[in-house]
From TrEMBL:
Highest taxon of the lineage: Bacteria
Species the sequence originates in: Ornithinimicrobium cerasi
Keywords attached to this entry: Calcium, Isomerase, Metal-binding, Transferase
Stated name of the protein: maltose alpha-D-glucosyltransferase
Residue ranges of domain Glycosyl hydrolase family 13 catalytic in the record: 25-425
One Pfam family matching this protein: Malt_amylase_C
Catalytic activity as recorded in UniProt: D-maltose = alpha,alpha-trehalose
Enzyme class, broadest EC rank: isomerase
GO biological process: carbohydrate metabolic process
Length: 573
């Protein structure tokens, strides 16, 4: 056992930390440029940790910062144990970990196991020396006909999962871009090499990994080459190694699949795999429900979500560095969502929408608040995307997913306070559109305005942090007589293991008006809440108690929501 991170100053010794945490995805490149190079870096991120601590996030997720030609935002790794020189050095990264930990903030990073860049020395060796030690590191074939049942993921750019290599005079397999050859996981040396990568970064002190594109590790003829048994066997071995050598560190699966398939990435009691999995299908349903003004799509996807093993957690999100993926919705839902959210074809990418949260919702403050309230109160540990806490805009005139990867907007000054470089030297231009210009949308201005979205987000995170039930409690949909109202309980037992030592209310009733008009609704709770006292979690104001039949009638303004603490034993006041 090499690495318990629990003794780091600032980190709480809590095995459930990831189940209660708010994650924050931040691109090192996009956050703060401390050197004037035009690109963000580790020192810049260190300089902004106080801001992230102030905001109330618990764990950062850093997408790849490894040596890379950057043809896929760093997901094209050219050296797994080197960092991009423009981001700093390994000692700088180590300093970032220790500075984050000192502030009680954990860090997980991306582990891109499925593929490398074609610039990786393993691929260069594999293509030029088929009989050498790396000859079998990739998936080679004399034809491009194998695995024909596997879909193409990057439909905008790729026409085949095979590309001919003129050096080796064979085809190589790639699930993503043709410059990203898939590693051959059938080769034990590849598996061992990946274990060593995991050890390298965990030894350095990171708190876990997001496992990128994890369904695609193995291939098998006659299948769609996704979620195959050997992939799960490999993940179980990886988890066993992590548990043994780095207890307390987490693995988070990025498996863009239906819930019934994703749950397999938690593994079994005998052979656990990941501690967390992103829940892809729920995210588009939140956007869908806002436009359809109906709770049903969200309720349905939650009903289709199987229970997960004890001690694990979903990861949830509204946006990330990729397009808002519509792979997990039906063709009818997809075309409705394109119509609502991506009327201009430039807003689309692959099977999804390359826009940020605020522009998706046409900068409607009440919709941004409501969808964030849903994210923060539904099951799962929410992951925020940098800049969405201030309602940053996007730039659909940029290439591919760069539309949503522009520099963080700190101030109304040059380059939005992100960099002192000549503006032309920035890795991407700052947002200067009419509505989302950095003159108006920036951290400094919002910090100075108590009614800003930024202050609202911080307040929400603070309230959530005081209620363990959001991370640990059950999710129970409460029937209501109004289809535009989504109401559910987050509850955990008063007696028993879960309740011991945890804070806050044991039951919170969340009621959300998905419609743009005021609504009244009679909400039915389980019988045990009959007569319970009701208090708003934000101001502590008492509401009328739950009726003796277990129901309560509430009125909500347009896109309004309530988080109501329930106490069956309190005198109502
Ligand atoms: O490394 C290749 C890609 O891996 C992740 O991709 C995921 O995003 C895709 C959409 O952009 C999605 O369709 C796919 O199912 C996912 O695995 C990573 O997040 C991407 O940035 C990266 O290009
Ligand atoms: Ca693969």
């Amino acid at each position: 056992m090499r690495g318990l991170n629990l003794h780091q100053p600032g980190l709480r010794n809590d095995p459930d930390w990831f189940r209660k945490a708010v994650f924050y995805e931040v691109l090192v490149r996009a956050f703060d440029d401390s050197t004037g190079s035009g690109s963000g870096d580790f020192t810049g991120l260190i300089n902004r940790l106080d801001y992230l601590q102030w905001l109330g996030v618990d764990c950062l997720w850093l997408p790849p910062f490894y040596a890379s030609p950057l043809r896929d935002g760093g997901y094209d790794v050219a050296d797994y144990t080197a960092v991009l020189p423009e981001f700093g050095t390994l000692p700088d990264f180590r300093e970032l970990i220790s500075q984050a930990h000192a502030r009680g903030i954990r860090i997980i990073t991306d582990l891109v196991m499925n593929h490398t860049s074609d610039q990786h020395p393993w691929f260069q060796a594999s293509r030029s020396d088929p009989e050498g030690p790396y000859g079998d590191f990739y998936v080679w074939s004399d034809t491009d006909e194998k695995y024909s049942d596997a879909r193409i993921i990057f439909v905008d750019t790729e026409t085949s999962n095979w590309t001919f290599d003129a050096v080796r005079r064979q085809f190589f397999w790639h699930r993503f871009f043709s410059h990203q050859p898939d590693l051959n996981f059938e080769n034990p040396a590849v598996q061992e090499a990946m274990f060593d990568v995991v050890r390298f970064w965990m030894d350095m002190g990171i708190d876990g990994f997001r496992l990128d594109a994890v369904p695609y590790l193995f291939e098998e003829e006659g299948t769609n080459c996704e979620n195959l048994p050997p992939t799960h066997e490999f993940l179980a071995r990886l988890r066993a190694m992590v548990d043994q050598e780095f207890p307390g560190r987490v693995l988070l699966a990025e498996a863009n699949q239906l819930p019934a398939e994703v749950v397999d990435y938690y593994g079994t009691e005998e052979a656990p795999e990941c501690h967390m999995c992103f829940h892809f299908p729920v995210m588009p349903r939140l956007y869908y429900a806002l436009r359809e003004e109906k709770a049903e799509p969200v309720i349905r996807v939650m009903e289709e979500t199987p229970a997960i093993p004890k001690g694990t957690q979903w990861g949830t999100f509204l946006r990330n560095h990729d397009e808002l993926t519509l792979e997990m919705v039906s063709p009818e839902e997809r075309s409705a969502m394109y119509g609502w959210y991506a009327p201009d074809p430039r807003m689309r990418a692959n099977v999804g929408i390359r826009r940020r949260l605020a522009p998706l919702l046409d900068n409607s403050r009440s919709e941004v608040e409501l969808i964030n309230a849903l994210l923060l109160s539904m099951p799962g540990s929410p992951c925020l995307y940098y800049g969405d806490e201030i309602g940053m805009g996007d730039n659909i005139w940029l290439h591919d997913r760069d539309a949503v990867r522009t520099p963080m907007q700190w101030t109304p000054d040059r380059n939005a306070g992100f960099s002192t470089a000549d503006p032309g030297k920035l890795y991407l231009p700052v947002i200067s559109s009419l509505v989302y210009h950095y003159n108006n949308v920036n951290v400094e201005a919002q910090m100075a305005t108590s009614s800003s979205l930024l202050h609202w987000m911080r307040g929400m995170l603070a309230v959530r942090a005081g209620q363990d039930v959001f991370g640990l409690g059950d999710f129970v949909v409460c029937e209501s007589d109004n289809g535009g109202i989504l109401s559910f309980l987050r509850a955990m037992p008063v007696e028993g293991e879960l309740a011991a030592g945890h804070e806050g209310h044991r039951a919170v009733l969340c009621v959300n008006n998905l419609t743009s008009r005021p609504q009244a609704a009679r909400v039915q709770l389980p019988e045990r809440f009959a007569g319970a006292a009701v208090r708003d979690l934000f101001g502590g104001t008492g509401f009328p108690a739950i009726g003796e039949d277990g129901s309560v009638t509430l009125t909500l303004g347009s896109r309004d929501f309530f988080w109501l603490g329930l106490n069956p034993h309190e005198e109502n006041s």
